[in-house]
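discrete fold record:
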Amino acid sequence: MIRCHFARLLGERKLKISDVARDTGINRGTLTRLYYETAERVELEVLDKLCEYFSVEVADLLEKVTSEH
């Protein structure tokens, strides 16, 4: 499973989804799906813009976690 840390990054920086949408031009719906970890696919351009915006690496935004069964 891939875990997205977008919500954590927003919280740490005291930002809102609308702030990121306005500043990056990324669709608000896309950002909302990342926030709630319901996105099924993410464009590489979106990941690139988010990494640049937050000054982080992809590994800081997305993390592969093993699912426990």
User: Anything to note?
Assistant: Helices lie at 6-13, 17-24, 28-35, 44-54, 58-61.
